[in-house]
Hints:
The protein is α/β, with parallel strands linked by helices. It is built from 7 helices and 7 strands, in the order αβαββαβααβαββα.
Amino acid sequence: MKKNRTLPVNLIVFVIFVLSTVSLFNLIRPSPLMAKDFDVVLYQGREHIGNDPVSLNDLRGQPVVLNFWAGLCSTCRAEMPGFDRFYKRNMDKLIFVGVDVGPYIGLGSTEDGRNLLSELGVSYPAGFTEDGDVVLDYQILYMPTTLFISPKGEIIRRFEGGIGEETLERYLEEIF
């Protein structure tokens, strides 16, 4: 009587297929994007960061939340008080930096940015960049845009539009 060998052969073929697919996926999966270096001239927060201007590369080794905003952006205005509360709760765990790109996207001047921070009374480090290419380099298509950057400088998470405190807390765990 002949034994049916089809099942073991099919099983072996299936296992080889699965293993090769997983290996191929690992080869073609993109590596995390690295945060491109640029300088931020601080409006406020020198006491928290130390350098002015501060280079993004200077912040390597620590998790960073990088928020691109504009002085005349209503969604940016709405999220800033929550960012400030988040920052105060987590300032010993991470670096938080707000970057005013309003002058490059037609949503305010640096004066508008300073006035907004003052009006809202937020305390986290914030400033502007003299490098207008940042908008292109980081593909800032929506205001605000928030990036979560690992201590190695990898962009772990990107959020476009307003972001709440609960989401900030949830994403914070991903950058450690």
